[in-house]
Amino acid sequence: MVGPEVLRNYRIFSICNSEQLKNIAQLAEDLSFKKGEIIFEEGESAEAIYILLRGSVELYFTVEVEYKPELRKELFFDVIKPGEVFGISALIPPKVLTATARASHPSRVVRIKAEAVLELCGLDEELAYQLMRWAAEAALERLSATRLQLAAIWAGELQLNNGPA
Amino acid sequence: MVSPELLRQYPFFGLLSDTQLKEIAMIAEEVTVDGKVKIFGKGDRAEALYFLLDGSVELYNYTETSALGENGILVGTINPGEPFAISAVIEPHILTSTAWSARPSRAIKIEAGRLRELFEQDRRLAFLLTRQAASAAMDRLNAARVQLAAALV
User: Fold this and answer.
1) The domain spanning residue A54 has which CATH number?
2) How confident is the model at residue A63 (pLDDT cuts 50, 70, 90)?
3) Best exposed site among A60, A74, A102, B142 by fewest CB in 10 Å?
4) Any CB–CB contact under 8 A between A136 and chain B?
5) Domain of B42?
Protein backbone atom coordinates (compact mmCIF):
# COMPACT_ATOMS: atom_id res chain seq x y z
CA MET A 1 0.00 0.00 0.00
CA VAL A 2 1.05 3.59 -0.69
CA GLY A 3 0.12 6.55 1.49
CA PRO A 4 -2.85 8.57 0.16
CA GLU A 5 -0.79 11.74 0.65
CA VAL A 6 1.72 10.43 -1.92
CA LEU A 7 -1.04 10.11 -4.53
CA ARG A 8 -2.50 13.53 -3.83
CA ASN A 9 0.62 15.15 -5.30
CA TYR A 10 -0.17 13.85 -8.78
CA ARG A 11 -2.52 15.60 -11.14
CA ILE A 12 -4.35 12.43 -12.11
CA PHE A 13 -5.52 12.03 -8.52
CA SER A 14 -5.74 15.67 -7.50
CA ILE A 15 -9.51 15.68 -8.02
CA CYS A 16 -10.08 12.77 -5.66
CA ASN A 17 -11.53 13.33 -2.21
CA SER A 18 -9.87 11.84 0.88
CA GLU A 19 -12.04 8.73 0.89
CA GLN A 20 -11.34 8.02 -2.80
CA LEU A 21 -7.63 8.58 -2.31
CA LYS A 22 -7.64 6.20 0.62
CA ASN A 23 -9.39 3.55 -1.47
CA ILE A 24 -7.03 4.00 -4.41
CA ALA A 25 -4.00 3.96 -2.12
CA GLN A 26 -5.08 0.54 -0.87
CA LEU A 27 -4.87 -0.69 -4.47
CA ALA A 28 -1.39 0.69 -4.99
CA GLU A 29 1.98 -0.92 -4.45
CA ASP A 30 5.42 0.62 -4.32
CA LEU A 31 7.88 -1.24 -6.58
CA SER A 32 11.56 -0.88 -7.42
CA PHE A 33 13.21 -1.79 -10.71
CA LYS A 34 16.89 -2.17 -11.52
CA LYS A 35 18.36 -0.50 -14.58
CA GLY A 36 17.32 -2.51 -17.64
CA GLU A 37 14.40 -4.30 -15.99
CA ILE A 38 11.18 -4.54 -17.98
CA ILE A 39 8.13 -3.08 -16.23
CA PHE A 40 5.63 -4.17 -18.87
CA GLU A 41 5.67 -5.30 -22.48
CA GLU A 42 3.76 -4.19 -25.55
CA GLY A 43 0.89 -6.46 -26.54
CA GLU A 44 0.15 -7.54 -22.95
CA SER A 45 -3.18 -6.83 -21.33
CA ALA A 46 -2.98 -3.41 -19.63
CA GLU A 47 -3.81 -4.07 -16.00
CA ALA A 48 -2.28 -1.18 -14.10
CA ILE A 49 -1.35 2.46 -14.28
CA TYR A 50 2.04 3.56 -13.03
CA ILE A 51 3.47 6.70 -11.47
CA LEU A 52 7.23 7.14 -11.63
CA LEU A 53 8.50 8.34 -8.25
CA ARG A 54 12.23 8.18 -8.90
CA GLY A 55 14.53 7.24 -11.77
CA SER A 56 13.73 7.11 -15.45
CA VAL A 57 11.66 4.82 -17.68
CA GLU A 58 11.96 4.52 -21.43
CA LEU A 59 9.01 3.57 -23.62
CA TYR A 60 9.69 1.81 -26.89
CA PHE A 61 8.18 -0.58 -29.34
CA THR A 62 9.86 -3.26 -31.34
CA VAL A 63 9.81 -3.44 -35.11
CA GLU A 64 10.59 -6.71 -36.81
CA VAL A 65 10.83 -7.44 -40.51
CA GLU A 66 9.77 -10.95 -41.50
CA TYR A 67 12.73 -13.19 -42.41
CA LYS A 68 15.18 -10.39 -41.62
CA PRO A 69 16.01 -10.64 -37.92
CA GLU A 70 18.93 -8.28 -38.41
CA LEU A 71 16.39 -5.52 -39.03
CA ARG A 72 14.78 -5.92 -35.57
CA LYS A 73 14.83 -2.54 -33.92
CA GLU A 74 13.71 -0.99 -30.68
CA LEU A 75 12.20 2.38 -31.48
CA PHE A 76 12.26 4.74 -28.52
CA PHE A 77 9.61 7.38 -28.47
CA ASP A 78 9.35 8.66 -24.93
CA VAL A 79 11.21 8.90 -21.64
CA ILE A 80 9.10 9.08 -18.50
CA LYS A 81 10.40 11.41 -15.81
CA PRO A 82 9.63 11.42 -12.08
CA GLY A 83 6.07 12.58 -11.42
CA GLU A 84 4.76 11.35 -14.77
CA VAL A 85 2.17 8.63 -15.23
CA PHE A 86 2.44 5.82 -17.76
CA GLY A 87 0.47 2.71 -18.69
CA ILE A 88 -2.56 4.83 -19.64
CA SER A 89 -3.81 2.00 -21.91
CA ALA A 90 -5.17 0.41 -18.73
CA LEU A 91 -7.92 3.04 -18.69
CA ILE A 92 -8.73 3.05 -22.41
CA PRO A 93 -10.42 0.24 -24.36
CA PRO A 94 -9.22 -2.23 -25.63
CA LYS A 95 -6.79 -2.05 -22.66
CA VAL A 96 -3.81 -3.50 -24.49
CA LEU A 97 -0.31 -2.09 -23.89
CA THR A 98 1.02 -0.31 -26.95
CA ALA A 99 4.63 -0.05 -25.80
CA THR A 100 7.26 -1.70 -23.65
CA ALA A 101 8.44 0.14 -20.52
CA ARG A 102 11.97 -0.44 -19.26
CA ALA A 103 13.80 1.20 -16.37
CA SER A 104 16.68 3.17 -17.89
CA HIS A 105 17.97 3.97 -14.40
CA PRO A 106 17.21 2.37 -11.04
CA SER A 107 13.58 3.38 -10.59
CA ARG A 108 10.80 3.41 -8.05
CA VAL A 109 7.21 3.33 -9.24
CA VAL A 110 3.72 3.17 -7.82
CA ARG A 111 1.64 0.49 -9.52
CA ILE A 112 -2.15 0.85 -9.23
CA LYS A 113 -4.49 -1.93 -10.32
CA ALA A 114 -6.67 -0.37 -13.01
CA GLU A 115 -9.63 -2.70 -12.69
CA ALA A 116 -10.15 -1.71 -9.09
CA VAL A 117 -9.83 1.99 -10.00
CA LEU A 118 -12.43 1.47 -12.72
CA GLU A 119 -14.70 -0.20 -10.18
CA LEU A 120 -14.43 2.90 -8.02
CA CYS A 121 -15.25 4.94 -11.12
CA GLY A 122 -18.42 2.89 -11.50
CA LEU A 123 -19.55 4.31 -8.18
CA ASP A 124 -18.59 7.91 -8.90
CA GLU A 125 -19.34 9.47 -12.31
CA GLU A 126 -17.33 12.60 -11.59
CA LEU A 127 -14.23 10.56 -10.75
CA ALA A 128 -14.77 8.39 -13.84
CA TYR A 129 -14.99 11.44 -16.10
CA GLN A 130 -12.00 13.22 -14.58
CA LEU A 131 -9.79 10.13 -14.89
CA MET A 132 -10.90 9.56 -18.46
CA ARG A 133 -10.36 13.22 -19.30
CA TRP A 134 -6.82 12.96 -17.99
CA ALA A 135 -6.18 9.72 -19.94
CA ALA A 136 -7.57 11.25 -23.15
CA GLU A 137 -5.32 14.29 -22.77
CA ALA A 138 -2.28 12.06 -22.28
CA ALA A 139 -3.19 9.94 -25.33
CA LEU A 140 -3.70 13.03 -27.50
CA GLU A 141 -0.40 14.56 -26.35
CA ARG A 142 1.44 11.38 -27.30
CA LEU A 143 -0.36 11.21 -30.63
CA SER A 144 0.57 14.79 -31.39
CA ALA A 145 4.23 14.19 -30.46
CA THR A 146 4.38 11.03 -32.61
CA ARG A 147 2.87 12.79 -35.61
CA LEU A 148 5.35 15.59 -35.21
CA GLN A 149 8.20 13.04 -35.22
CA LEU A 150 6.69 11.49 -38.34
CA ALA A 151 6.38 14.82 -40.09
CA ALA A 152 9.96 15.71 -39.15
CA ILE A 153 11.31 12.40 -40.48
CA TRP A 154 9.46 12.70 -43.75
CA ALA A 155 10.59 16.26 -44.07
CA GLY A 156 14.17 15.06 -43.52
CA GLU A 157 14.62 17.16 -40.42
CA LEU A 158 15.24 14.43 -37.86
CA GLN A 159 18.13 12.02 -37.64
CA LEU A 160 17.02 8.48 -36.97
CA ASN A 161 17.32 7.67 -33.31
CA ASN A 162 17.79 3.98 -32.56
CA GLY A 163 18.07 4.38 -28.83
CA PRO A 164 18.40 6.82 -26.00
CA ALA A 165 21.68 8.61 -25.48
CA MET B 1 -30.47 18.50 -36.13
CA VAL B 2 -29.87 14.91 -37.24
CA SER B 3 -31.87 11.81 -36.49
CA PRO B 4 -30.98 10.02 -33.24
CA GLU B 5 -31.41 6.82 -35.26
CA LEU B 6 -28.55 7.92 -37.52
CA LEU B 7 -26.28 8.28 -34.48
CA ARG B 8 -27.42 4.96 -33.03
CA GLN B 9 -26.02 3.09 -36.04
CA TYR B 10 -22.44 3.84 -35.03
CA PRO B 11 -20.52 2.14 -32.18
CA PHE B 12 -19.07 5.53 -31.20
CA PHE B 13 -22.50 6.46 -29.81
CA GLY B 14 -23.48 2.86 -28.98
CA LEU B 15 -23.57 3.13 -25.18
CA LEU B 16 -25.63 6.33 -25.03
CA SER B 17 -29.19 6.22 -23.71
CA ASP B 18 -32.13 7.33 -25.86
CA THR B 19 -32.23 10.66 -24.01
CA GLN B 20 -28.50 11.24 -24.51
CA LEU B 21 -28.76 10.38 -28.21
CA LYS B 22 -31.59 12.90 -28.60
CA GLU B 23 -29.55 15.59 -26.85
CA ILE B 24 -26.58 14.99 -29.15
CA ALA B 25 -28.85 14.86 -32.21
CA MET B 26 -30.25 18.29 -31.28
CA ILE B 27 -26.85 19.97 -31.46
CA ALA B 28 -25.66 18.10 -34.55
CA GLU B 29 -26.03 18.81 -38.24
CA GLU B 30 -25.10 16.99 -41.39
CA VAL B 31 -22.49 18.72 -43.55
CA THR B 32 -21.15 17.91 -46.99
CA VAL B 33 -18.08 19.05 -48.88
CA ASP B 34 -17.35 18.74 -52.58
CA GLY B 35 -13.88 17.65 -53.58
CA LYS B 36 -10.75 18.71 -51.75
CA VAL B 37 -11.68 21.25 -49.10
CA LYS B 38 -9.83 22.36 -45.97
CA ILE B 39 -12.06 21.56 -42.99
CA PHE B 40 -9.88 22.91 -40.19
CA GLY B 41 -6.29 23.83 -39.48
CA LYS B 42 -3.73 22.64 -36.97
CA GLY B 43 -3.58 25.02 -34.02
CA ASP B 44 -7.18 26.22 -34.46
CA ARG B 45 -9.58 25.96 -31.55
CA ALA B 46 -11.75 22.83 -31.93
CA GLU B 47 -15.23 24.25 -32.51
CA ALA B 48 -16.86 20.95 -33.48
CA LEU B 49 -16.56 17.20 -33.19
CA TYR B 50 -17.03 15.49 -36.55
CA PHE B 51 -18.11 12.01 -37.44
CA LEU B 52 -17.49 10.89 -41.02
CA LEU B 53 -20.46 9.27 -42.79
CA ASP B 54 -19.18 9.03 -46.38
CA GLY B 55 -16.02 9.94 -48.23
CA SER B 56 -12.53 10.34 -46.85
CA VAL B 57 -10.70 12.95 -44.78
CA GLU B 58 -6.93 13.29 -44.63
CA LEU B 59 -5.00 14.66 -41.67
CA TYR B 60 -1.78 16.57 -42.22
CA ASN B 61 0.93 17.70 -39.89
CA TYR B 62 4.00 19.84 -40.30
CA THR B 63 6.95 21.05 -38.30
CA GLU B 64 7.61 24.70 -37.56
CA THR B 65 10.77 24.67 -39.64
CA SER B 66 9.57 22.60 -42.56
CA ALA B 67 9.48 24.21 -45.94
CA LEU B 68 6.63 21.96 -47.03
CA GLY B 69 4.07 24.69 -46.96
CA GLU B 70 0.78 24.85 -45.18
CA ASN B 71 -0.32 21.29 -45.91
CA GLY B 72 2.66 19.38 -44.59
CA ILE B 73 2.79 15.60 -44.37
CA LEU B 74 -0.08 13.12 -44.46
CA VAL B 75 -0.23 11.55 -40.98
CA GLY B 76 -3.61 9.87 -41.02
CA THR B 77 -6.78 9.10 -42.96
CA ILE B 78 -10.29 9.14 -41.53
CA ASN B 79 -12.69 6.55 -42.92
CA PRO B 80 -16.50 6.41 -42.69
CA GLY B 81 -17.63 5.53 -39.17
CA GLU B 82 -14.73 7.32 -37.50
CA PRO B 83 -14.69 10.55 -35.48
CA PHE B 84 -12.30 13.40 -36.19
CA ALA B 85 -11.45 16.69 -34.49
CA ILE B 86 -11.55 14.70 -31.26
CA SER B 87 -9.74 17.62 -29.60
CA ALA B 88 -13.26 19.07 -29.31
CA VAL B 89 -13.76 16.84 -26.27
CA ILE B 90 -10.16 16.72 -25.05
CA GLU B 91 -8.49 19.68 -23.37
CA PRO B 92 -6.97 22.07 -24.29
CA HIS B 93 -9.38 21.84 -27.26
CA ILE B 94 -6.72 22.80 -29.80
CA LEU B 95 -6.61 20.88 -33.09
CA THR B 96 -3.41 18.91 -33.58
CA SER B 97 -3.64 18.36 -37.36
CA THR B 98 -4.98 20.04 -40.47
CA ALA B 99 -7.91 18.20 -42.11
CA TRP B 100 -8.74 18.15 -45.80
CA SER B 101 -11.48 16.17 -47.47
CA ALA B 102 -9.88 13.84 -50.00
CA ARG B 103 -13.04 13.60 -52.08
CA PRO B 104 -16.71 14.56 -51.75
CA SER B 105 -17.57 13.74 -48.15
CA ARG B 106 -20.46 13.82 -45.72
CA ALA B 107 -20.14 14.14 -41.96
CA ILE B 108 -22.07 14.78 -38.77
CA LYS B 109 -20.86 18.01 -37.15
CA ILE B 110 -21.52 18.37 -33.41
CA GLU B 111 -21.07 21.84 -31.97
CA ALA B 112 -18.29 21.63 -29.38
CA GLY B 113 -19.44 24.41 -27.06
CA ARG B 114 -22.90 22.96 -26.64
CA LEU B 115 -21.49 19.44 -26.34
CA ARG B 116 -19.28 20.60 -23.48
CA GLU B 117 -22.35 22.20 -21.86
CA LEU B 118 -24.02 18.80 -22.02
CA PHE B 119 -20.91 17.30 -20.45
CA GLU B 120 -21.31 19.69 -17.50
CA GLN B 121 -24.88 18.52 -16.97
CA ASP B 122 -24.36 14.81 -17.59
CA ARG B 123 -21.10 13.30 -16.35
CA ARG B 124 -22.02 9.83 -17.62
CA LEU B 125 -22.33 11.22 -21.16
CA ALA B 126 -19.05 13.10 -20.67
CA PHE B 127 -17.31 9.92 -19.54
CA LEU B 128 -18.66 7.76 -22.38
CA LEU B 129 -17.80 10.14 -25.22
CA THR B 130 -14.43 11.12 -23.76
CA ARG B 131 -13.58 7.42 -23.47
CA GLN B 132 -14.51 6.94 -27.14
CA ALA B 133 -12.34 9.91 -28.10
CA ALA B 134 -9.46 8.53 -26.00
CA SER B 135 -9.86 5.17 -27.69
CA ALA B 136 -9.75 6.84 -31.12
CA ALA B 137 -6.60 8.72 -30.05
CA MET B 138 -4.95 5.45 -28.98
CA ASP B 139 -5.88 3.78 -32.30
CA ARG B 140 -4.32 6.70 -34.16
CA LEU B 141 -1.28 6.62 -31.91
CA ASN B 142 -0.75 2.98 -32.84
CA ALA B 143 -1.20 3.76 -36.52
CA ALA B 144 1.23 6.69 -36.29
CA ARG B 145 3.81 4.48 -34.58
CA VAL B 146 3.47 1.90 -37.37
CA GLN B 147 4.03 4.70 -39.90
CA LEU B 148 7.01 5.86 -37.87
CA ALA B 149 8.43 2.35 -37.79
CA ALA B 150 7.97 1.99 -41.54
CA ALA B 151 9.80 5.27 -42.07
CA LEU B 152 12.67 4.17 -39.85
CA VAL B 153 13.22 0.54 -40.93
Assistant:
1) 2.60.120.10
2) confident
3) A74
4) yes
5) 30-152
Band of residue B85 on the pLDDT scale cut at 50, 70, 90: very high
Mention every residue, 6+ apart, whose C-beta is less than 8 A from residue A154.
Answer: B73, B151
- Whether residue B33 has pLDDT greater than 70: yes
Q: Is B38 on the interface with A (CB under 8 A)?
A: no
Taking CA atoms, B97 is separated from A80, A87, B117, in Å, by: 25, 25, 25
Domain containing residue A119 = 4-162
Flag whether B139 is in a domain.
yes
pTM of the shown model = 0.86
For the complex shown, is ipTM > 0.85?
Answer: yes
Structure confidence at residue B44 as a pLDDT band (50, 70, 90): very high
Task: Say whether A139 and B141 touch across the interface (CB within 8 A).
Answer: yes
Please name the amino acid found at residue B38: K
Nearest to A146 among B135, B145, B152 (CB): B145
pLDDT at position B142 over 90 = no
Provide the number of structural domains found in chain B. Answer: 1
CA closest to B134 among chain A residues: A136
